Amino acid sequence: MVAIEKQGKCNKLLIGVDVTASTAGTLWNVFLANLDDCEEMEINLSQVNMVDTEGLRWVRKAMIEASRNGKSLRFVSGRPETPEVLSLYRIFCEFVEPAAR
Predict the structure, then answer these.
(1) I need a surface site. Which of 8, 67, 76, 77 has the fewest CB within 10 A?
(2) Residue 38 is part of a domain; what is its CATH number?
(3) By residue range, what is the domain housing residue 82?
């Protein structure tokens, strides 16, 4: 499940499934379909329980695609360890606190 909320120039994707090999293709299509009509994209990972290596690739690919299209991309995580785990794989991205949304 992915919910999309459009707030002005920002499209917010709330991902309610694990980001794995079995969901990455669908998530990628949803991401691309919502990237064109915004200046900013926020991906909320607070409901995600698991990210496998394909999920890590998905996060990195989303960052590259947003940058290539001149879009701002940030992530929301309900878990403080998420940015730390991503940094172990040299994936450095902007995180905002769930309460700051």
Answers:
(1) 8
(2) 3.30.750.24
(3) 16-100
Tokens of 94: 């902007």
Q: Is residue 41 part of a domain?
A: yes
**Residue-wise DSSP of 3-58:** EEEEETTEEEEEE-S-BSTTTHHHHHHHHHHHHTT-SEEEEE-TT---B-HHHHHH
CA–CA separation, 30 and 24 (whole Å)? 10
Q: pLDDT tens digit string along 13-44?
A: 999 999 999 999 999 999 999 999 999 999 98
Cα dihedral 41, 7, 101, 14 sign? negative
Look up the pTM and report it.
0.82
In terms of Cα–Cα distance, which of 53, 57, 62 is closest to 31? 62
The tokens 């499209």 sit on which residue? Answer: 11
